[in-house]
TrEMBL record:
<dbReference type="InterPro" id="IPR029061">
    <property type="entry name" value="THDP-binding"/>
</dbReference>
<dbReference type="GO" id="GO:0045252">
    <property type="term" value="C:oxoglutarate dehydrogenase complex"/>
</dbReference>
<dbReference type="GO" id="GO:0004591">
    <property type="term" value="F:oxoglutarate dehydrogenase (succinyl-transferring) activity"/>
</dbReference>
<keyword id="KW-0786">Thiamine pyrophosphate</keyword>
<comment type="subunit">
    <text>Homodimer. Part of the 2-oxoglutarate dehydrogenase (OGDH) complex composed of E1 (2-oxoglutarate dehydrogenase), E2 (dihydrolipoamide succinyltransferase) and E3 (dihydrolipoamide dehydrogenase); the complex contains multiple copies of the three enzymatic components (E1, E2 and E3).</text>
</comment>
<dbReference type="GO" id="GO:0005829">
    <property type="term" value="C:cytosol"/>
</dbReference>
<dbReference type="Pfam" id="PF16078">
    <property type="entry name" value="2-oxogl_dehyd_N"/>
</dbReference>
<protein>
    <recommendedName>
        <fullName>2-oxoglutarate dehydrogenase E1 component</fullName>
        <ecNumber>1.2.4.2</ecNumber>
    </recommendedName>
</protein>
<dbReference type="InterPro" id="IPR032106">
    <property type="entry name" value="2-oxogl_dehyd_N"/>
</dbReference>
<feature type="domain" description="Transketolase-like pyrimidine-binding">
    <location>
        <begin position="601"/>
        <end position="794"/>
    </location>
</feature>
<dbReference type="GO" id="GO:0006099">
    <property type="term" value="P:tricarboxylic acid cycle"/>
</dbReference>
<comment type="function">
    <text>E1 component of the 2-oxoglutarate dehydrogenase (OGDH) complex which catalyzes the decarboxylation of 2-oxoglutarate, the first step in the conversion of 2-oxoglutarate to succinyl-CoA and CO(2).</text>
</comment>
<dbReference type="InterPro" id="IPR005475">
    <property type="entry name" value="Transketolase-like_Pyr-bd"/>
</dbReference>
<comment type="similarity">
    <text>Belongs to the alpha-ketoglutarate dehydrogenase family.</text>
</comment>
<dbReference type="InterPro" id="IPR011603">
    <property type="entry name" value="2oxoglutarate_DH_E1"/>
</dbReference>
<dbReference type="Pfam" id="PF02779">
    <property type="entry name" value="Transket_pyr"/>
</dbReference>
<dbReference type="InterPro" id="IPR031717">
    <property type="entry name" value="ODO-1/KGD_C"/>
</dbReference>
């Protein structure tokens, strides 16, 4: 115990039982130092090296406990007056602890369930007896410890308890005790306390809430009557979502928000689209009725409850652009996509804090608790490369998920929102049948987000009046709940009765709202009264120029040699105070020699030059991956780290004072959320070369949902263009089944309708031209690169600086050795690293009748170039496809028909590669080497597919 604390305690009758009181004083000191007595103020100011705002309360507890231990029970040894004083102090400490516990645990008994089915027993810690208090103390006045003017500093205990119940146990259950930052925690406590005591909505605001509830209910009933057999994923029971979102938009406008991006699953989407965002009811009806002009449709389209929408909404402080993201039925997977889109919009506005653009994510209760992408996205919230200034989360908590009968079968936590505590997000549970409480927490959540730029969660506790869809019978699995729901008035009816009782509105006027809504729906009038349609502003991007363009164009991607040398010099010039690691310094020195023509160009330098050249031409570059700054294979070194400090230097950010952004971030260990974020970014910013790099290509299967539902099909389903680039290290070097294959076959299976590009570059120059082509071409399509590993340092896989000055990316590369076409009897086509194995073997054996051709782009397949090669070698009747992957993987099954199309009946198409296998590769080095040699031999020498396969199947037999 410090001398100062001992002296302070000796001057008071306080003991260990008063720790809660002292803690309350400490919280009060943190909020307002002048509000506590000077002797306590002096002590608290000395805590934690000058009174840091987040000092633990432990020192206070420990000091009091030691004092109690050293002096024994105060009452036994002290005079009567001291005993009375000590007892009063103990009671005050107990009351202070009671206040604190209500703040922390009051949510456990809050009236948050509209159905009243939640088991909410009063915990012992909320009983007076738990604190040594009783009914005899109810008339005694105590200090409240209040830091807000709305609550008196002294009150009778009965009034303190009544007010605590009003604040913490009403239709809002607040959780913020887990917020460790005391500034934020005290802010939340003060704002919540004051608001629950003083907040009053005007009569006009209350009528607005009722109109929104009327609209929410009205749309569902209208659609149920007009289209009774169709799915719509009704919002009924969660109607309060409509006034909640509308109020967030309106209040956001007042706080300076200019754009809001909304992500949500399908429940309630149609309702928000029509009643808040402003989709035309007539357009919605056409979708229900199936009125599509299929002759003019591009792509597959999608069901109506997956579609997005963009509009501008009028607020008292100006227009807010609102975009609702398209989302498949994979529920929470849209979360990182929205965050990426928001980040792109913020960068466009130089909105570094997130003051102008805000994400709003609307979740289902079971999905929020159950899907891992939620945790991954939450983990992004304060990470530098993915920061968006805080997200407002709204959980539509219908308490049953899909058809689950008990909440405890859906999660292991008390609340569906508990996963958000991992980032210490405040959580407000609110009764969906109390729209005023809903609006209150919406405004408080927005205020918190705008003040601290962190995530916040609104758990809208409601119910689902119908089944999972409108043809489902929910009572089969939730008989008790649906018996209660059938007897429950709708949220609109409950609130209308309340306003009539308050004399805010007459029942006839409430009924007139219902009639008016239905009449306007019959007339097809817009129901989102503040929606202005898509107006746009200076930050709006015109994507039309990327539509209806020539997908077969050849783009010249060469760069003048003078410019390349100038850029190369800037990329190899170190700041005078930067001390590099010796290996990195050697790489920089080698790059200087490459610039001078003394060494061939390697992959890492060619890639950096591609970025530099694009930056000088006005394109932004964003590169994200788990080790992208350095490069997983120690090859890129786009970021230089000073060895004597934590400083780093990024040469690509110092090409010129006016250059566009170059961002490179080492991401946290996530695939699904990070790839989703980059997809969202690239669908929003066409002027950026946006790259996601897998640490190993094999890890991309952790993001398969993003690939299947967005990257490969987003354009076909929703018309969403995307220029995202995926770099996936791929190649068989004997590193086992999880470090060999980027699952090329899966991407090729998804290729159709010119939806993306899949390339396997084999030289640094090819990588240079391919990256530049991605931005220079007139369209935006995803690019999937099977990028190299061992080729990064292969003696044959090099280029010259001159190779970057002319031409473009070559989809097919013909034979490079001096082989006479007329003498060729066999042509081996291949992609990637195996080419160099074939080349080494052919040269070693002196074969002059075999030509080896690289197919560098597998989709869109270069059919004309392939046919020209076959025609060139007119005497070659054996056409071989050689690959490293097993026969059932890799490219073979996906391009076999392409290879066959240009062949005559005199040709024989052969396969040379590993036999079919369940795993992508062997983990045994010896077997890998034997398989590799066998497939090379098969490609260069075998006379049939069967013979080539025997080279690999014999290895399996021998291994058995």
């Amino acid at each position: 115990m410090s001398d100062s604390l001992r002296a302070l305690l000796d001057s008071t009758p306080l003991g260990a039982g008063n720790a809660p009181y002292i803690e309350s004083l400490y919280e009060q000191f943190l909020a307002d130092p002048a509000s506590v007595e000077p002797k306590w103020r002096d002590y608290f100011a000395g805590l934690g090296k000058g009174g840091a705002s987040d000092v633990a309360h432990g020192p206070i507890r420990d000091a009091l406990a030691k004092r109690a231990y050293s002096i024994g029970a105060p009452a036994a040894a002290a005079p009567a007056t001291a005993s009375v004083s000590s007892d009063a102090a103990a009671k005050q400490g107990a009351v202070s602890r009671l206040v604190q516990v209500y703040s922390n645990r009051g949510h456990l008994v809050a009236d948050i369930d509209p159905l009243g089915l939640m088991k909410r027993p009063v915990p012992e810690v909320l009983e007076l007896s738990h604190f040594g208090l009783s009914n005899a103390d109810l008339e005694t006045e105590f200090l409240t410890g209040s830091r807000v003017d709305a609550i008196p500093k002294r009150m009778k205990l009965k009034d303190i308890v009544a007010q605590l119940k009003q604040i913490y146990c009403g239709t809002i259950g607040a959780e913020f005790a887990h917020v460790s930052n005391s500034t934020e925690r005290l802010w939340l406590q003060n704002r919540f306390q004051e608001g629950r005591v003083t907040n009053r909505f005007s009569a006009e605001e209350k009528k607005t809430f009722l109109r929104h509830l009327t609209a929410a209910e009205g749309l569902e009933r209208y659609l149920a009557t007009k289209y009774p057999a169709q799915k719509r994923f009704s919002l009924e029971g969660g109607d309060a979502l409509v006034p909640l979102v509308d109020d967030l938009i309106q209040q956001g406008g007042l706080r300076g928000i200019e754009e809001m991006v909304i992500g949500m699953a399908h429940r309630g989407r149609l309702n928000l689209l029509v009643n808040v965002v402003g989709k035309s009811p007539q357009k919605l009806f056409s979708e229900f009725e199936g009125h599509y002009d299929v002759n003019h449709m591009q792509g597959s389209g999608d069901v109506k409850y997956h579609k997005g929408f963009s509009t501008d909404i009028k607020t008292p402080a100006g227009n807010v652009h609102v975009a609702m993201a398209f989302n498949p039925s994979h529920l929470e997977v849209v979360n990182p996509v929205v965050e990426g889109s928001v980040r792109a919009r913020q960068q466009r506005r130089s909105d570094t804090k997130g003051d102008k653009v805000m994400p709003l994510l609307i979740h289902g209760d079971a999905a929020f608790a159950g899907q891992g992408v939620v945790m991954e996205t939450l983990q992004m919230s304060q990470v530098r490369g993915f920061y968006t200034g805080g997200t407002v989360h709204v959980i539509i908590n219908n308490q049953v998920g899909f058809t689950i009968s008990k909440p405890e079968d859906a999660r292991s936590t008390m609340y569906c929102s508990d996963v958000a505590k991992m980032i210490e997000a405040p959580i407000f549970h609110v009764n969906g049948d109390d729209p005023e409480a809903v609006a209150f927490v919406a405004r408080l959540a927005l205020d918190y987000r705008m003040t601290f730029h962190k995530d916040v969660v609104i758990d809208l506790v409601c119910y689902r009046r119908l089944g999972h869809n409108e043809s489902d019978e929910p009572a089969a699995t939730q008989p008790v709940m649906y018996s209660k729901i059938r007897a429950q008035k709708t949220p609109r009816q409950i609130y209308a009765d309340r306003l009539v009782a308050e004399k805010v509105i007459a029942m006839a006027d409430a009924d007139a709202m219902v009639d008016q809504y239905r009449r306007e729906m019959d007339e097809g009038k817009s129901q989102a009264k503040q929606s202005l349609g898509l107006i746009g502003n200076k930050h709006t991007v015109d994507w039309t120029k990327y539509h209806d363009v020539d997908l077969t164009e050849t783009v010249n991607t060469g760069v003048r040699i003078e410019q390349l040398r100038e850029l190369a010099t800037k990329l190899t010039t170190l700041p005078s105070n930067l001390s590099l690691h010796r290996q990195v310094a050697k790489i920089v020195q080698d790059r200087e020699k490459m610039t001078a023509g003394q060494l061939p160009l390697d992959w890492g330098f060619a890639e950096n030059l591609a970025y530099a050249s694009l930056l000088t031409e006005g394109y932004e570059v964003r590169l994200i991956g788990q080790d992208s700054g350095r490069g997983t294979f120690f090859h890129r070194h786009a970021v230089w780290h000073d060895q004597n400090s934590e400083d780093n230097y990024v040469p690509l950010q110092h090409l010129s004072p006016s250059q566009p952004r170059f961002d490179v971030y080492d991401s946290f260990l996530s695939e699904e959320a990070v790839l989703g974020f980059e997809y969202g970014f690239s669908t929003t910013e066409p002027n950026s070369l946006t790259i996601w790099e897998g640490q190993f290509g094999d890890f991309v299967n952790g993001a398969q949902v993003i690939i299947d539902q967005f990257i490969s099909s987003g354009e076909a389903k929703w018309g969403r263009l995307c220029g995202l680039t995926l770099m996936l290290p791929h190649g068989y070097e004997g590193q086992g089944p999880e470090h060999s294959s980027a699952r090329l076959e899966r991407f090729l299976q998804l290729c159709a309708e010119q939806n993306m590009q899949v390339c396997v570059p084999s030289t640094p120059a090819q990588m240079f031209h391919m990256l530049r082509r991605q931005m220079k071409q007139s369209f935006r399509k995803p690019l999937v690169i099977m990028s190299p590993k061992s080729l990064l340092r292969h003696k044959l896989s090099v280029s010259q600086l001159d190779d970057l000055t002319h031409g473009s990316f070559r989809t097919v590369i013909d034979e490079v050795d001096d082989i006479q076409a007329s003498k060729v009897t066999r042509v081996v086509f291949c992609s990637g690293k195996v080419y160099f194995d074939l080349l080494d073997s052919r040269r070693g054996d002196g074969l002059h009748n075999v030509a080896i051709v690289r197919v560098e782009q597998l989709y869109p397949f270069p059919a004309e170039e392939y046919a020209a090669i076959v025609k060139k070698y007119s005497n070659a009747k054996e056409i071989v496809w050689c690959q490293e992957e097993p026969q059932n993987q890799g490219a073979w099954y996906q391009i076999r028909h392409r290879l066959q199309e240009s062949l005559s009946k005199d040709h024989q198409l052969l396969y040379a590669g590993r036999a079919p296998a369940a795993a992508p590769a062997t983990g045994i080095a010896q077997m890998h080497q034997e398989q590799q040699q066998a497939l090379v031999d098969a490609a260069l020498r075998s006379t049939s597919t069967e013979e080539s396969l025997r080279h690999t199947t014999r290895l399996k037999a021998a291994n058995k």
